[in-house]
Design a protein that fits this description.
alpha/beta, single chain, 10 strands, 12 helices, two-stranded parallel sheet, 280 residues
Length: 280
């Protein structure tokens, strides 16, 4: 893996997504000049992260000025708190942000407009939508620039998120739609795995055998797709012999409206994302 050098970074709210990003930043191939500063509400969470090399971790319950300390000298500031907590946090930190810093939001449904309205004009804003496979370096992150961010700002944000996987740059108008695909996508995959595992158990396999059969099949099929120059459709056809068992199974899925189900599911997710952005 090639080496990456990044400027000082602050992560405010190193929970699930913030923690995933942190896992990429502490890899031996990544050098963060000025260090990484993270904040959490409790000492329990903060103490665990303090053990990571190059990380300074603060607990808000013990250090009242933790956010100001984390932000001092930080070029990139990742906002990892829950969406409903974002406005109050931005008001609290507005005066502590370094001029020229880049504030990156991973909060679903909170718009660039909201961020920019609450932060100084000297600060640029970028929206990011990572997903949970970022925890194992296999994430997919959508990045959307704000009205004040430059190409260099976007490139720096991209470098940060490339430490945990792949990055797709989109306009903000597409970031919510992206969240219904890659953001929510792992849940769709896990649900399919759950149901295929249940079907295997129903056919007499032990739970351990079913997990080996199903988990291995999903992992192998995904790796085959990644290493192949063929499309998913071409690979599916290659498995599907005319009038064979796989064709019969696929016929049932097609007759059940499987394809339309994904359209309706992602549409429902997009509607809810818009509701969250509107505060409902």
């Amino acid at each position: 893996m090639s080496e990456t050098t990044l400027p000082a970074i602050a992560i405010l709210g190193a929970g699930s997504m913030g923690g995933a990003i942190l896992s990429g930043l502490v890899q031996p191939s990544v050098h963060v000049d000025g260090g990484i500063r993270v904040t959490n509400r409790t000492s329990e969470k903060a103490d665990a992260l303090a053990e990571l090399d190059g990380v300074t971790s603060y607990a808000l319950e013990k250090t009242p000025d933790a956010q100001g300390r984390a932000l001092a000298g930080a070029k990139v500031v990742i906002i990892g708190v829950k969406p409903h907590m974002v406005p109050d946090l931005l008001r609290d930190i507005a005066d502590d942000l370094e001029p020229g810093s880049i504030v990156v939001s991973v909060a679903a449904g909170v718009t660039v407009e909201t961020f920019e309205s609450l932060l100084p004009e000297s600060v640029s804003v970028i929206r990011a939508m990572p997903n949970t496979p970022s925890h194992v370096g296999k994430g997919v992150t959508g990045l959307a620039p704000g009205t004040r961010s430059s190409d260099d700002d976007l490139a720096l944000a991209r470098a940060v998120f490339e430490t945990v996987g792949q990055v797709v740059e989109v306009p903000e108008s597409q970031i919510d739609a992206l969240s219904t695909i890659s953001g929510s996508g792992p849940a769709y995959v896990f649900y399919l795995i759950e149901e295929l595992t249940r079907a295997a158990v129903d056919k007499g396999f032990t739970p351990e055998q079913a997990a080996t059969l199903v988990n291995g099949t999903f992992a192998g099929a995904t790796e085959l797709l990644m290493q192949s120059d063929k499309t998913p459709e071409q690979l599916r056809i290659a498995v599907t012999s005319p009038k064979g068992t796989t064709e019969q199974a696929l016929n049932v899925l097609q007759q059940a409206g499987f394809a339309d189900t994904f359209t309706r599911a992602t549409d429902a997710a997009l509607t809810r994302s818009h509701e969250l952005a509107a505060g409902s």
